[in-house]
Every structure is written in C-alpha cells, then in structure tokens.
Amino acid sequence: MIDDNKCCAVTRFRSDRQFNDVFPPSIRKFADRHWTPLSVARKVADYLSVKKGSKILDIGSGAGKFCLAAAHYKPEVQFFGVEQRKSLVDEAEAAKKTLGIRNAFFLHGNFMQTNFDLYDHFYFFNSFYENLVWGEKIDNTLEYSENLYHYYNRYLYKLLASRPDGTRLVTYHSVEDEVPTDYQLVGSHLDGLLKFWIKISGLNDVDHENDHPYYKPSRISLEQQEKMIVATGLADRSL
Ligand SMILES: C[S@@+](CC[C@H](N)C(=O)[O-])C[C@H]1O[C@@H](n2cnc3c(N)ncnc32)[C@H](O)[C@@H]1O
To answer: Which intervals hold domain Methyltransferase (predicted)?
Structure first.
C-alpha cells in the first residue's frame, strides 16, 4: 500500500506551482524571483552530484527550495544550505518535514561562518544581490549596502579559491565576481544565466590576492552585466 504522505510529496515535484504550495503565501510570493525553479535544481543536482555521499552547499539557501528539490532528485547525495534569515531556515525545516526529505540540512548563519572544508561542491544563486540599491529585497530585517555586496563577493571568492582542484561550482544569475579565475567554465545554459564551473589550477598562474575583480575589470563586460541583471527580472526597472 502506498504511503499517503509519500504519494503527495511526489506530486509536489510535478511543477513549480505545486512545489511552491508547500510554503505559506508569505514565502511563496518570493518564489518567481528568489527560489530556484525545479528544472534548474534538477540540472544543477545532476552536475554537482559527482558521487554517492557527495556534500553540496547552497550558499544562501532561502526557504530551502534548491536543497529540497535537489535532495529529491539525488537521494544518495547530501545537500546543505546556509541561510542568514532564521525565519527562512524555519520555513525550510517545515517544508522538509512536509516533503519527507531526509538528505537536506539547513544551517542558520552567515556563509562567512561556514566551514567550506566540510563540502565538496557549491551552488550560488546570486545571494548578495539584494545589497545593491536596485536589488529586490526579501524584507527589511537586515542592513544592506553596496560595500557589503563587494565584501561578500570578495570573501566568497577567497573561500572558493581555497578549494581543491576538481571542486564544482554552479552559478545562477551571477555576474561572476565571486568566481576565481582558475574555475573553468564547462557549461552554460539559459542564455548564460546558469553556469557550470570546475576548479582546475595549473593552467595559468593565479595570484588570488590581486586578481579579484575588485582590482581588475570583471571578466564579463559592464554591458553584459547590465543585460544579465535585466534578464534576472530582479532589477527594479523603474529605477
Ligand atoms: C536568491 S535567494 C536563493 C535561495 C535558494 N538558494 C534557492 O535557490 O531556493 C538568496 C538567499 O541568500 C540569503 N543570503 C544573502 N546573503 C547571505 C549571507 N551573507 N549569508 C547567508 N545567507 C545569505 C538571502 O537571505 C536569501 O534567502
């Protein structure tokens, strides 16, 4: 006999609308702009799930949609999310329970407090964007600033630069300021909004102290960045 809960949980993954119903309206309303679509989560999970037991970190996990969906598609892999807003971690835990997911885990905190040594591969959905003036904010519980945006990017860049060769990274809606230059692009989807990277050093000599886009022009042009920001739908076009 099929377990009722399991059966309902499976139907949740048939469409984003069905999945998003796992959240209360106050969280669901952010889905289009802030939570990863199921089709993207599946692609990302396929790329990052290198082997059984791999540990994947979602940097800025929100209400947990990416981790929960990826965990559903890849039950043999563990997905972790770090999220600065406690209320969103609580929502993620509640959704995890409703969905009966066992291989997704949520941590409350700033990503800067996270020990990256514990994880094999990483997912990043432009989490720092809300610090930019035109970035759409989830709420007003935090202090935002452009300086913080650059500081976070630089900090993440350093953490990613310190990972071993073979580390995989997926960026979604990112302008790539956080991607160290020894991460090679191995796949690009959705007109460049979704990018798959792998760290392979030794191809060129990288001085991580000085090669950050803070000091050098970003590897993608300003024009391209503007285009991407508009394409994200996150930009307030009235500005
Ligand atoms: C665009 S949402 C992505 C949510 C999730 N990754 C998903 O795809 O469903 C970005 C999230 O990152 C969180 N965030 C932003 N800066 C953060 C930081 N410094 N540390 C931890 N979380 C952060 C935000 O609170 C927000 O919930």
So the answer is: 51-118
Q: Which atom of ligand 1 is nearest to the CA of 35?
A: 9
Q: Quick one: which of 33, 18, 13, 1 has its CA closest to 126?
A: 33
Would 239 be classed as within a structural domain? no
Nearest-10 crossing angle of helices 38-48, 65-73: 60
Report if residue 124 sits inside a domain: yes
141 neighbors 86 (Cβ within 8 angstroms): no
pTM of the model: 0.86
Our mutation pick for probing the ligand 1 site, out of 28, 43, 84, 123, counting the most ligand atoms within 8 A of Cβ, is: 84
Confirm whether 68 is domain-assigned: yes
Give per-residue pLDDT as tens, 93-127. Answer: 999 999 999 999 999 999 999 999 999 999 999 99
Q: Residue 101: which CATH number?
A: 3.40.50.150
Are the beta carbons of 50 and 120 closer than 8 angstroms? yes
Ligand 1 atom at minimal distance to the Cα of residue 82: 21
Tokens of 218: 């970003």
